[in-house]
Structures are given as structure tokens and as C-alpha cells.
Amino acid sequence: MTTVSTVTEPTLDRPARTRAPAGGRWREPLLGLLGLAIVVAVVEALPRLGVVNGRFLPPFSTMARALGSELATANFWTALGQTLGGWAAGLALAMIAGLVVGVIVGSVPFLRAVTASTVEFLRPIPSVALIPLVVLMYGSRPQSALVLVVYASFWQVLVQVLYGVADVDPVVRDTARSYRFSRWSIVRTVVWPTALPYVVTGFRLAAAVALILEITAELIIGVPGLGRSIGVAQSSGAVAQTYALVIVVGLIGVAVNASARAVERRVLRWHTSVRRDL
Amino acid sequence: MTDLPRRVLAALGLPIVLVALWWVLSAHSSSFFWPPLSEIVAAFPRTWTADPIMHDVLPSLARLAIGYLIALVAGVALGTAIGSFRTLRALCEPTLEFFRAVPPPVLIPVIALFAGYTGWTAKVITIALGCVWPILLNTVEGVRSLDEVLRDTARSYRFGRTSTLLQVVLRGSSPRIAAGARQALSIGVILMVISELFGANRGLGAAIVQFQRSFAVPQMWTGIILLGLIGVALSGLFRLVEHQTLAWYRGLRQAERGA
User: Fold this and answer.
1) Residue A153's pLDDT band (cuts 50, 70, 90)
2) pLDDT per position as a tens digit, A71-107
């Protein structure tokens, strides 16, 4: 079973499966809720007790009220839509480009050898280095954010796909070749299932990175979206509103992480890393 | 050994071709955004003289280093504590998930509320706060997925608390810590740049945006290239350190795979 060792690499930062908790199955979620409640209580208490100036950190109830009135405005929902739309479009483009390039480059040894150094060089270039360029070219239009998002998440996907394609068991590939599988069926039945765990890992990493860059572009360049709303709220001194929007962005991040993990579990339900009975 | 020249050729071939293509294609470029590469190269030594290196580049890197080290120490310390105690972990997990999910650049307006955004402190705090989550969460995971047998063995051999912590817990989770530290490094570079884009500042990021605002396009390109080189150099440095410290782990993996 070579597949067992293959999953250790891409799942490095996946939480290990927990053993059965000692005090019933509700203990851990309840403790987690308690933890959140403590944080909320501390945020509520600090400004009320005067430990922290309420102008910098308003009590949680004030933030919640600001969030409530924010949810009632059309601007908020437009901004939310713009952020999520830009994120999804950039992520989709990066996934497609990363998959196509990764599978082609990964399956041809010559291309792989020739491009390795270039990939290693281009990947660590921080995408924010491109900010001045996209500002000159697109100003604060959504294209600016799109370029940054695609550039940053493309490498995440590409590198994982390359790992995945390289991980194909040579015996399996040679067997497929002996049986005269066509190139396409080798990709479909041998390369794809091996690479899939890596692809999904790439998707999960790229989804998080794409959100970071989308928000960054909105905040720094002024591309319309929640990030810009945060910048506007902060510079106009609407402190509670700033915190409320930061909370919203954090919740989006939680939702992105959770749904990426759900996708992972669903796509890989046949895989040894996800199946429970192994 | 015909292998070495071929490998060198494979490694350098495409980059050389790409740079040459850029050089040739942009040679007579009159486009405002894509000046000829020769012009960019010529602008490089003129732009990055001793003064901007002393007052922009080095301070930026120093802030990155301080913030990153704070995050590393705090993340490993907190992560080890949270990972070692089951109740504490259950208590903190959802909260940590939330803070991890907040895109780090959003911290900047929040920190700006407290400290303003001109001095070093605010920028270092931004970098440290952004970098700490991947390190912290990976340390928690690393400590938690430690081999029970190893722990029990250490106990049977009556390892003291300190040596268990150093030799078993930290050593055992170091591959995961390294994975988190690598993620944190790229976040740190991003934050180093954008923390300088807020307000009037000096620093590498601020300098590049200054070129862009004054439409000094070749100079702006030299800045982009310099940032890219710094990114590559930092990731190379990280690999070197990782290679040294995790040598035992690679050996172990190889042995396991070979078996």
C-alpha cells in the first residue's frame, strides 16, 4: 500500500483526528463555546472597567449593535457580494490554470526538469510586490484584486499538483502502459486519483490565500468590497463599525476554511486519510 | 560525470531564456508600464544606493525579523501549552480558528486605532500578530499528534520535565512547527510591505509605492524586482535552516519509506 505514505505530505497541516473525548461527545464543543464566551466577556468588560479606552476598543455589545445596523444597509451586502465574487473568480481562475499547467508540466519529465528552478524562483515572490504595477494599470478597479488573487493562489495550486503528479506509483503507471491505456485514460484513472489529495490541499491553501489577497487589495488599493469598507470606517473614526466589519471578515474566513475542509472530506471520502474505518 | 552540467543547464536554461525574452521583447517598448528591461537594469544601481538601503530596506527587514521572531517564540510557547492540555485545547480551539481566519492585513486598521501607524511598534506588532497564527496552530497540531509511545518511553526512562519538553515534545513536533513557520514567513513578508503603505512612512514598501505615485516606472520595477529577490532569498535561507534542523526527520521518513 504505497498510498498510505503519499498522504502524509499534503495533509501536514490538517488537524489530526481526535481520539474519543473523555467526558462525552458534547464536552469539547461546549468547552469551545465557553472559550468564545470568555473572549466576548473580556472584550465587553475591558472598556467598561476602563482598562482600555473605549474609543479604541468598544464593548462587544456596541460592536454587535454596529454589526446589526450594518447588516441592515444595502451597501454592506453589495460590498460582501463584491468581496466574495472577486474571491471566487480569482480562486477559480487560479485552480484551472494551476491544474492545467501542473498536470502538463508534471507528466512530462523534460518540462518538469526545465521549469523546476523557475517555479522555485517565482513562487516566493510576494504577490504584494505587484501592487504598484496593478495600481498603475487598473487603478482601483476589480481587475487589480483579480491579478493579485490569481498570482498568489496559482502557485499554491501548481506546487501541490506538481507534487501530486510526481507521486504516481511507477508500477501502477507502467501497468497501465502495458495494458495500452491511452494517455488520456492514464491521466484520468492513474494520475488524477493519486494527485487528487494534493489538488484538494492546494485548493484549501489557495482558498485562504485568495481571501487574504482580495481583502488586501480592497483595503490598500481601494477595490470595492468589505476591505475598503473597513478602511473607510477606520479613517472616518467609526470604531465600532470597523470592529464589526473585521468580525464579518473573520467569519467569512472561518466559513472559507470550513467549506474547504468539507469539500476535502467529500471529494476524498474514498481515501485512506479520510475514511474512518482504517 | 555528465550529470552536473545537464542539471545546471536545466536549472538555468529557462530563467535565462525568460530574461532574454523580456529583454528582447521590451527593447523598443514605448509602453509606459513596461519599460525596456535595459532601462530597469540601468536604473537599479541608481535607485538602490547606500542611502535607501540604510533607511528603507534594512529597517524593513529588521522589523520583519523582530516581528517574526516574536511570533515564533510566542507561537511555539503558547502552542506547546495549548497542545499539551486537552481541556485548554478544547477551550481555545474555536477562538483560535476565528483569529486564524481573520485575514492579517485587516489588523492594520485595528492596530492603527490604538497606536497610530507611524512608528516601528505598530508595524512590528502587525507582523507578529499576523505570523503567530500559523505557527501557533501548527505547534498545537504537532504537539497533539505526538507519538504516545515516545511520550511513554520518555516517562519510563524518567526523563525530567525539561528534557521531555525539549527532546520529545518540541523535537517531535518540529516538522509541523517548521511547516507553520514557512507559512508565517510569507505572511510576514506581505505584512512587512503593506504595513508601510499606511500613512507617511519610510521602508521598502513605502519606497516602491512612492515611485509608483510619482510615475517613476523603471524605479518602481527595480523595487518590484528587489522585493522578489528578497522573497527568494528569505525562502532560501529558511530552507537552509530547515534542512539543518530537520535532517533527522528526513532520514526517518526515508527509512520508513524504504522499509
Assistant:
1) very high
2) 889 899 999 999 999 999 999 999 999 999 998 898 8
Do B193 and A219 count as a contact with CB atoms less than 8 A apart? no
Q: B142 at the A interface (CB within 8 A)? A: no
Domains, in order of start, for chain B: 61-200 (1.10.3720.10)
Task: Tell me which chain B residue has its CA closest to the CA of residue A27.
Answer: B90
pLDDT of residue A7: 37
Q: Of B95, B123, B243, which Cα lies nearest the Cα of B194?
A: B123
- CA B203 distance to own-chain centroid: 17
Q: Which of the residues A2, A6, A8, A13 would you substitute to probe the B interface, choosing the one with the greatest number of B C-beta atoms within 10 Å? A: A13
- Residue B91, chain A, CB below 8 Å: the answer is yes
B185 pLDDT higher than 60: yes
pLDDT tens for each residue of A204-215: 889 988 999 999
Between chains, do A250 and B232 touch, taking CB under 8 Å as contact?
no
Classified by CATH at the fold level, domain A59-267 comes out as MetI-like fold (1.10.3720)
- Verify whether the Cβ–Cβ distance B94 to A219 is below 8 Å: no
